[in-house]
Amino acid sequence: MYELRSPTVKRRRIAKELTHLREQAGLTRSAAAKALDMSPGNLGRIENREITARPVVVRAALSLYGVTGEEAEALIELARGAAERGWWQKIKVLPDWFGFYVGLEEEATSIATYESEVVPGLFQTADYARELFRLTTTEDAEIEQKVEARLQRQRILTRESPVRVHAVVNEAVLLRPVGTSSQFKAQLEHLIQISELPNVELQVLPFSSGGHPAMTGPFVLLKFPDAIDGPIVYLDNFTQGQVIEETEQVESYEDAHIRLQNLSKSPSESLARIRDALGSF
What SMART domains does its record include (predicted)? Predict the structure, then answer.
């Protein structure tokens, strides 16, 4: 079994396993909570990964559900790891809802994303990110911490066993300058460099394609090394993020991304379009 790194994914795994084992044991949440001497609400928060289950609680739950031996010890060790803090949890300016996403992103083996207005965060230069944050943040110190966090996220592109990214960006991303002309040119040049990484595929969705299946907004689809963790779709806005896990809904986004790829320029044509845009600034 793949060794999990991210405490966020460990917490998600524990929550899914405990829920599955309780249901397999034929216990309602209320009955299990009573036997574990806790409120159904607290058990619900554990199963919904709102809080991290302490190893002692996991051990008691597994005993109740009839799970012993190596399987139990593996899950208890996972619970210990879930209580650790990832680097993103130490950056106070990142809201919890986005920190949860970063914890998932850290473990992902593949990312499929569509962006309509901005360069994907994993592909942004420091200057481009800084100018974006200035639109919504006034404190310079807070802006710099957010920029630092964004750059740290990008290490998953070049680490050992890097994440595979397939990004589709609306043509508007190449035409909407952010920052000074020189800063935006540097961002476009960086996009060209990023697209040359063997684990990155970048496509431009041209205006000439007309309507498309993601006109309601951008999205990110993450997949993980173990099938048990299941893929997720992440959506966000100014004030909150949403994780979608229901299989049918995730498959709809997978289908949408495939359709976007088919409507977009090929990677080589997209690279030529970025170079063309670069020449206009």
Answer: HTH_XRE (SM00530)
